[in-house]
Amino acid sequence: MKLDIVIAGVGGQGSVLASRVIAQAAMAAGWEVRTTETIGMAQREGSVVSHVRIGSQLYGALVPDQQADILFGLELAETARALMKLKPGGVIIANQGKVVPASVSLGLSHYAEEPIRESLYQKTKRVMLVDADALAMEAGNSKTVNVVLLGVLSALAGLPFRRDDLLQVILESVPKKAVAMNQEAFERGRKIGVTFHDRK
Fold this sequence. Notes:
This protein has one domain (3-199): Pyruvate-ferredoxin Oxidoreductase, domain 3, CATH 3.40.920.10. The longest helix has 21 residues, at 179-199. By secondary structure, the chain is α/β, with parallel strands linked by helices. Helix content is 42%, strand content 22%. Strands 2-3-1-4-5-6 form a six-stranded mixed sheet, with helices on both faces. The protein has helices at 15-28, 76-81, 102-105, 113-123, 132-139, 145-154, 163-173, 179-199, and strands at residues 3-10, 32-39, 47-55, 68-73, 86-95, 127-130. It is globular.
């Protein structure tokens, strides 16, 4: 078994935490894991790409281009930016929310939302595009977008870890006062993931 996941987002969205949660759940299930991150110049709102490789006899932490089984995107444009990592027929789990760069706010560039969306569907038919920002707010905290998407991920068939193991790692990784809202965010995401799965 081998599973390669690339997580794309911007600083402050929790992409590194998401990669560590996935890695810990896989290790708890007995798999070998390799992880690494590439982080942009800005601490917040700079590009962050995390790589998680799960299986046996893993030789490197970076997922080669066209090899990721899953592209996990916390921000729409950053998901599109990482498309070269996804293998043909791979799965995209992505937040449809945007983090608009300052250059767009100043009118110096344009955030081409529709072409970005189209690029995802041109790459693969297996796209789960989720309003994770709204689901996170419904769960009680806008910062739980990463947990919402982990819930969506947990509904995929064939993962090398159980849904309960993934949730347990999440709840052990957050402060006690945030446990309930993170569990709610996870369950809201999982419900959406099951709905996507049932459409097949």
